[in-house]
Design brief:
- The chain is an alpha+beta fold and 752 residues long.
- The chain is 18% helix and 43% strand.
- A 16-stranded antiparallel sheet has the order 19-20-21-22-23-24-25-26-27-28-29-30-31-32-33-34, with no helix packed on it. It has a 4-stranded mixed sheet with strand order 16-15-18-17, covered by helices on one side. The chain has a 3-stranded mixed sheet with strand order 2-5-4.
- A hairpin with a 5-residue loop joins strand 10 and strand 11.
Length: 752
């Protein structure tokens, strides 16, 4: 029957001789613009009509997707185009949606042509069901069923509804690795992100199967073996078995280990720009040791980068292994191919819809019309990523057609939200409840300027501040920061009606880049500090007020230096932070100087274990024969200092036991970071063991080991949605009977 109808509908095409078209009429059109039809058909009034043009018209009109049926009839010398329009989609909705955000699925469907106002096509709807199903499979929800309902409405429109029954996630019940002899199966399983159920998998979701994750885990296993010299290691198969009720998955991996090989020789062949000795110096392997693919790959990358520094953007270094299976030895030959030297013709930017071009270009170390330099390009990407304005930064090298010695660089960025408004309540073991509010914009109007407004209330410290930073106050990259603030503080462990110290002030600070990694800071400010109230004032403070008055005004000058190459600011595992800052108040009713030095160093022990060292030293001295101001004293103890001892409790005390603070402070922190069992490779949640030492001393006291306080314990660090959280529990190793001990401490937003 379908065949008969088809022949009937197209038979006029083959039964009509060629003729000159006197008129063209369109019937059945309702919403579609008639101009769309006329623009699609390959003939006009006055043209000669033939069978070929008729067939082309049918194909073109169907291809628009606007019509469910199209016919062409010939009446005398007129062409009549009869169309049946597809319904339009009036709405797209979901029911039973929990795992995904509704807007996320709507955007995905829109890319497939399913959205309000688009023509309806049943075939696309069926593909959409499969696409949504695949999204759920990616999250290990194998029991998900999806049913689409199409409901016709007035004016030839339809409503589409996807009814989703998600069901529980399918969890990994078993992972087996077959063929492992050199290493225990448990060792190999520990390399994988995927795992069977554990006490923490509700957080990590590592017990949910994902093909992408499995492929990544297989690569980790392969890399592990090749680092141990197993050059012929192979993954022979990997398969999954789904239980009949779709509630669990078993993963079976079969491997072939081979034998380990020792590296006996590394040679260079090919073209190395006449700098063979220079490239040989980049080889960092130990002959006679077990072959390590990671060392070879690192050497290969260093050579390619060195080629890039000389402008050879497309250089290659291939690795050729000559294996002696009888002796278990391998000789490596690195074959260099320098290719041609090129320079950068143009740098194109894309993706910066808000951020101005100049904000991106001023971070680029590779310039247009200059020789290509891979090191400068890598540094440019690092600087753009450190801005914090972009989720992703990529720099692609593109050859210029017809110009073999030129390339273009395409810099693509994906912008992220740089504004933050927060209102909340915090709680810490020292400050109790704290109200916090802030307005922060890191990229104001796309200029790269920072603007921040902060309000913080606490039992002992309160702050209201506004600050702004222009990172490129000058074209040379000198930054300028302005701060205006109003701070109040009261002594730790005092009553709420005791005295307080009030400090309004303002400052301006400049940062001068001396190298790519070093920056020197200098600035000037104005502060006024006053004691309000006398209740609870220690005699030491009363004596100071009697000699110097209850109010002080001073102009502090600051100068400092910083160098930071840590791999992560919140959860570092390698790198170093060094900084020194000196504040000198040489003018005003109060004169003093304060110098602070900090050194942090992080050492990766394994891929999951790291050691961190932090040393912090502060020294305050009087200037010009004036008394050192008591309100500039240092305090110690608590998180961020010597843990286990109560916050701010270390240092000199008067006869009543009131903590006075001191002019010298030394803090030493040692932390060993360990993965949380069941958390896989997630570094946002880590266990740490710590040993802390330090104290605070008065001007007439010497820093000695005897006077130091030492503590040890365990803790948990978590990069939570509201900020870094640290929880610590421990006990003192070296203490005095008068010390205030607090075994359990926690705080959100704490530093080291």
């Amino acid at each position: 029957m379908a065949t008969i109808l088809l022949i009937t509908s197209i038979s006029p095409l083959y039964a009509t001789a060629d003729f000159v078209i006197k008129d063209i009429r369109i019937e059945g059109i309702q919403r579609t613009d008639p101009g769309t039809v006329f623009a699609t058909v390959p003939f006009r009034k006055g043209d000669t009509y033939n069978e070929e043009k008729g067939a082309m018209a049918l194909r073109g009109l169907f291809k628009t997707g606007f019509f469910k049926d199209v016919q062409i009839k010939i009446e005398s010398d007129e062409v009549v185009i009869i169309v049946v329009e597809r319904p339009l989609i009036a709405s797209v909705d979901f029911s039973g949606l929990r795992e995904f955000d509704r807007d996320t699925l709507l955007r995905a469907l829109k890319e497939m042509g399913i959205s309000e106002g688009k023509p309806f096509d049943r075939a696309i709807i069926e593909r959409a069901e499969q696409e949504i199903k695949q999204q759920y499979l990616g999250r290990s929800l194998y029991g998900t069923s999806i049913v689409s309902t199409v409901t016709p409405t007035e004016r030839n429109r339809v409503n589409i509804k996807f009814s989703i029954e998600e069901g529980p996630p399918t969890r990994i019940k078993e992972i087996q690795i077959q063929g492992a002899e050199a290493f225990a199966e448990s060792t190999l399983l520990g390399l994988m992100d995927l795992s069977t159920g554990g006490w923490l998998t509700w957080y990590t979701k590592n017990d949910r199967y994902s093909r992408t994750k499995l492929n990544g885990d297989l690569e980790k296993i392969k890399a592990f073996y090749t680092r141990q010299g197993y050059l012929e290691f192979a993954i022979e198969s990997s398969r999954i078995t789904l239980s009949p009720d779709k509630s669990s998955i078993a993963i079976y991996i079969k491997i072939r280990e081979g034998i380990p090989y020792r590296l006996t020789q590394v040679d260079l062949e090919g073209e190395f720009l006449g700098r063979t000795d220079e490239f040989k110096s980049l080889i960092n392997v130990k002959l006679g040791e077990v072959y390590n693919s990671e060392d070879i790959a690192a050497t290969q990358k260093r050579m390619i980068d060195r080629f890039g520094e000389y402008g050879h953007a497309f250089a290659r270094v291939e690795v050729r292994n000559d294996i002696d299976r009888v002796k278990g030895q391998v000789k490596v030959t690195l074959v260099g191919d320098s290719q041609r030297r090129v320079y950068v013709r143009r740098i194109n930017l894309a993706g910066n819809f808000k951020t101005r071009d100049e904000v991106i270009r001023r971070e680029l170390r590779q310039f247009e019309a200059s020789w290509y330099d891979a090191q400068k390009i890598t540094r440019s990407r690092e600087l753009l990523q450190r801005l914090g304005y972009f989720k992703d930064v990529s720099i692609e090298t593109v050859e210029v057609p017809g110009s073999p010695d030129q390339v273009d660089l395409n810099v693509s960025v994906v912008e992220s939200a740089t504004g933050n408004v927060s209102l909340g309540v915090g709680f810490s073991s020292s400050e109790k409840f704290t109200l916090m509010g802030s307005l922060q914009q890191d990229n104001v109007f796309g200029t790269g300027h920072f603007l921040g407004i902060q309000l913080n209330t606490g039992r002992y410290n309160r702050t209201a501040a506004i600050s702004t930073t222009d990172p490129y106050f000058t074209e040379d990259g000198v930054s300028r920061s302005i701060d205006v603030y109003y701070r109040t503080s009261r002594p730790f462990y005092s009553s709420l009606d005791s005295y307080q110290i009030v400090t309004p002030g303002a400052s301006v600070r400049f940062g001068v880049p001396f190298t790519e990694y070093d920056r020197v800071y200098f600035g000037v400010g104005y502060e006024k500090t006053a004691f309000q109230g006398t209740n609870g004032l220690p005699q030491h403070y009363l004596d100071y007020i009697e000699r110097n008055g209850s109010s002080s005004q001073y102009v502090p000058f600051t100068i400092g230096w910083a160098r930071d190459d840590r791999d992560n600011l919140l959860a570092p595992s390698k790198g170093t932070l060094k900084r020194i800052n000196t504040e000198i108040a040489a003018f005003g009713s109060t004169r003093f100087s304060r110098t602070n030095l900090q050194y942090q160093h992080f050492i990766p022990i394994t891929s999951k274990v790291a050691f961190g060292l932090n040393a912090d030293f502060g020294l305050g001295t009087s200037v010009g024969g004036k008394d050192y101001p008591v309100f500039k004293n240092y305090y110690g103890g608590g998180l961020g200092s010597v843990r286990v001892f109560q916050q701010g409790s270390l240092g000199p005390k008067d006869l009543s036991g009131t903590i006075l603070g001191g002019t010298k402070r030394l803090t030493l922190n040692n932390e060993l970071y360990l993965p949380v069992p069941g958390a896989g490779n997630d570094k946002s949640l880590r266990i740490f063991a710590f040993v802390d030492a330090g104290n605070v001393w008065a001007p007439d006291e010497n820093i000695t080991w005897k006077s130091m306080r030492v503590s040890t314990g365990l803790g948990l660090s978590w990069i939570s949605p509201v900020g870094p959280l640290k929880i610590g529990w421990g006990k003192p190793i070296k203490s005095e009977s008068t010390d205030k001990i607090q075994s359990f401490q926690f705080q959100i937003g704490t530093g080291f």
